[in-house]
Specification:
Helix 1 runs parallel beside helix 4. The chain has a single domain, classed as Double Stranded RNA Binding Domain (2-Layer Sandwich). It is built from 4 helices and 4 strands; from the N terminus they run E-E-E-H-H-H-E-H. With 91 residues, the protein is of the alpha+beta class. It is globular, with a radius of gyration of 12 Å.
Length: 91
């Protein structure tokens, strides 16, 4: 899946799209903070360079976003460190 995301300076987050049902399905927006990228995934980038970290870890990030969407399809998808801890526990 291609990465579709933007860095939001005012919130230090990356907002990105995932397609839980594949490329022909609905587009779902999610976000991850720069802090979560650092703490959960070990990213070192800051500011606009945070987009590079998201692209590099997008397989893990998108899986966490889809899992969050499946758990609550009507709620906002704001990824936290706990989302990645749950994924590691399942592996």
């Amino acid at each position: 899946m291609d990465f579709e995301g933007i860095y939001c300076f005012d919130t230090a987050t990356v907002r990105f799209a995932v397609y839980p049902d594949g490329p022909d399905g609905a587009r779902v927006l999610a976000q991850i903070s720069q802090d979560v990228l650092h703490d959960a995934l070990g990213a070192k980038e800051i500011g606009e360079h945070t987009l590079h970290a998201c692209k590099r870890h997008f397989d893990v990030i998108s899986a966490a976003a889809v899992a969050r969407f499946r758990a609550d399809p009507h709620g906002p998808i704001v990824l936290a460190c706990a989302d990645f801890a749950r994924m590691r526990a399942r592996q």
